[in-house]
Amino acid sequence: AQLEDVNKVEFDYEDPNKKKEYPILLNLEDPYLNYNLAHTLEENGSFAGSSEGIRGEFLYRTEWPSVTSESYESQIGSVDWQSKALKGGVGVIVNRDMIGHGKLSSLSASVLYAPKFIIKGVSLIPSFKYTFNNKSINWDQVKTNDIKDPRNGVLYASIPVLPEGVSTSNFIYHEFGFGMLVNANKFYAGFQYDHVNAPSYK
After folding, report:
1. Rounded CA separation 114/89 (Å)
2. How do residues 9-22 score in pLDDT, each as one tens digit?
3. How far apart are the first and last CA of the chain?
């Protein structure tokens, strides 16, 4: 009987004596953030419009809900897209923080614009940010101990006395920021600078 040819299965084994050749580092992807509690537009407004379509993000965080009634809650949502008419990215951010079920709350809304420029194969994306802020205090929930230093009982200088006949105080202010994102073939880098006008409220 004639034996049929049997194809030998070949396996690739790694030679420990062979010098490894590492690939050249190339930036083949669009810049993106990927770590715990990262919010793309809050980190850098120049990310606005960096995705191919419409991108929406939402984060929710609560601290010590079962330990104390003075829990902290934070919610932030955003949407951004690429606008052909404006030749850049457009984004909107809404951020809400609340302490003690409304004792102290903060609400802000931001609008971002990030035009894109390409110079010699390098993408330059500056961004401009305007933010409307509203902070409020519900004095009906504020107790005397809330305006004292728990270590020594001294009144805080910022809130010497509780106002009489006032249930809620609102503080409104505006601020501006800008950012930059550089995207090249082998790297990308960027920064964000907020509170340019250093707003204050009383």
Report:
1. 5
2. 555 555 656 655 54
3. 101
